[in-house]
Amino acid sequence: MTIGDSHLCIAGLHKELGPIIRVSPNELSFASVESIQAIYGHAPGKAPLKRGSFFMMLHSGFKKPNIVSELDQDRHRELRKIMLPAFSHRALQEQESVMSGMIDKWLTKISQQATPGSNGVEIGRWYALDALDILGELAFGESFQAVQTGRLDTRLNLSVNPYVVTLIDNLRHIDFVVTLVKLLVPPSLLHKNPNAVFSREQAERRLALGESKQDFVFPLVEKVLNGEMDKEEMASNMFVLTIAGQDTSVMSLLSITYLLLRNPDKLDRFVSEIRSNFDKYEDINSTKAQQIRYVQAVINESLRMIPPAPSGLGLPRVSSGFEIHGRYIPPDVEVFTAPWSLTHDPKYWTDPMEFKPERWLDPDCKDIKEASTPFSVGPTLCIGKGFSLMEINLILAKMFWKYDLELVNQDFDWIRDGRVNAGWWWPKLYICFHPRADQATVSDE
């Protein structure tokens, strides 16, 4: 599984052996709609399943866990309650103008680098630059200027290496390795992790701005200033917000862009829907974009075809003892649902390997849509779902309204060549931007 085909291995085993397979001595993978609710949902009268020890690596370098790595159920609920107001529909609408302006600057910059006839730009890298600048502004209090410089400061390399995550996930099941690491790697060394040091510095800078700036971390600032949270916990949460916000948005945008450019008939309709709904570039907004049914169908279908966390290896929960598919799963066994296995299972989808946005629009379609949950469900529903969808819709609407895109490396086949460990390795898609054929000039504002 370390060679990048974990999602395919797990899917193959499920196809051969059924909806429950063992992937390590104390870890089970599930491939059924029923398992989604059983593992990640909230059954009446039962507490949600606890997170597995894997999640602890997501606050490595910090003395305090964060909203993703917190294993204590009560504290996790408290953190969600604290942070939810910053991700409400109203709060996101208040931040949209900031995000929109940053996307405009990004689009101007990238179009200058990806002119027709060139080798194009690696679009994933540029999506990452934009995502980091937006998150910097809305979570750290200031843009990182990554788009302006066209490069990433090494301190801003906050994304998690999928290979390292998979390696750690495998090794944590071996007791003597865990003991050896604890002996050889003192906590003081982990606390000097560059990402952790940088996040602490940014937390101090954000605290200096006080409560005047209404951004994603405003609720955390408020708690720290009131003495209800310490700075270390704030820094840990700022760090994980950046990881989650960057990786999810970048992978989603990459998959949507790739699938559209590989399917010209879908691309034509997608572009037509966007351009017919917005007369002017300046009219583009996320609220209206999210009301364009075909655009949302493309997003949903792309996240089904290429789910952000395809193998499920990085999403373990700990069984409290439950029955599913006629089997009793004893307490303390780690369990997860395998997204790729579900989203490519003909039991749930007609022609699962085909890109068919129309399946999300056809009222007579018999596909089981509940088999695709890219943002999870219930108490594990991603707190940043609304933010991610706002960003995705704005970028797509602005980019495809203003430019005709061309995929340079046509020989790349994501399904064949895409590599997965705990998460995707960002594929190198090279894109050229052509000015719209039907307009000589379009506003750069």
Protein model, in words:
It comes from Penicillium capsulatum. This protein has one domain: Cytochrome P450 (Cytochrome p450, Orthogonal Bundle), CATH 1.10.630.10. The protein has 18 helices and ten strands. The chain has helices at residues 6-17, 33-40, 73-83, 89-113, 123-140, 146-149, 162-171, 175-184, 187-190, 194-208, 218-225, 231-261, 264-277, 286-289, 293-305, 339-343, 385-402, 414-417; strands spanning 20-24, 27-30, 50-51, 121-122, 317-318, 322-324, 327-329, 334-337, 403-407, 430-435. The strands form three sheets. A five-stranded mixed beta sheet has the order 1-2-8-5-3. Strands 4-10-9 form a three-stranded antiparallel beta sheet. The protein has a two-stranded antiparallel ribbon with strand order 6-7. A hairpin with a 2-residue loop joins strand 6 and strand 7 (327-329). The chain is globular and about 65 Å long. Mean pLDDT is 86; it is low at 162-167 and 441-445.
Give the topology:
Layout: H1 6-17, E1 20-24, E2 27-30, H2 33-40, E3 50-51, H3 73-83, H4 89-113, E4 121-122, H5 123-140, H6 146-149, H7 162-171, H8 175-184, H9 187-190, H10 194-208, H11 218-225, H12 231-261, H13 264-277, H14 286-289, H15 293-305, E5 317-318, E6 322-324, E7 327-329, E8 334-337, H16 339-343, H17 385-402, E9 403-407, H18 414-417, E10 430-435
Parallel strand pairs: 2-8
Antiparallel strand pairs: 1-2, 3-5, 4-10, 5-8, 6-7, 9-10
Helix pairs in contact: 4-5, 4-17, 5-12, 10-12, 12-15, 12-17
